[in-house]
Each structure stands twice: as C-alpha cells, then as structure tokens.
Amino acid sequence: MSDHRDSRKSRAVSINLGDTEGRIEEIPAVQEEPQKVRFSCWEQGRLLSQPLELTEKELLNLLKVAIRVGILSPDFIKELSSEFEI
C-alpha cells in the first residue's frame, strides 16, 4: 500500500516543558486535502504516546511560535480573531 502524502518535509515548532517538549507540526496534505497539524509530546527525541498537556500560558507560547513560522495559516488567525473579536 503506498503513502499518498506529499514527500516534502513537514515543518515543526516546539517549546521546552522541562523533561519533555510540546510540538506543533504540519502534516503534508494529500492533493486537495486541507492542511492538518499535529500536537504532540516528545521526550529525548522520541514521540510519546501520552497526550500533550499544557498550561494556558504554554499553549499560548506554542501557538505564537507556530503562527510566527507560518505553520498556522493567516486564514486560521483571521477566523480565530473574528470568532473572539481579538
């Protein structure tokens, strides 16, 4: 069975959470599929099966980094700001 995902390397950003890191990464889209992102927890370069647990401040910091590098799109930012009038 072949993988139909784009062969481009996905981009990722992370923040240090002490012993672990929280990460947001792009998932390369299949042709017409909307862009997807993955939130994950890593330790010593290994993906952990546990969920990513963040404080509100840590989540905000991770989102800021993802926005700055373009992982979260201008459309995402526009919709978020219009939803909450920010």
TrEMBL record:
Name of this protein: Uncharacterized protein
Biological source species: Longilinea arvoryzae
Highest rank taxon of the organism: Bacteria
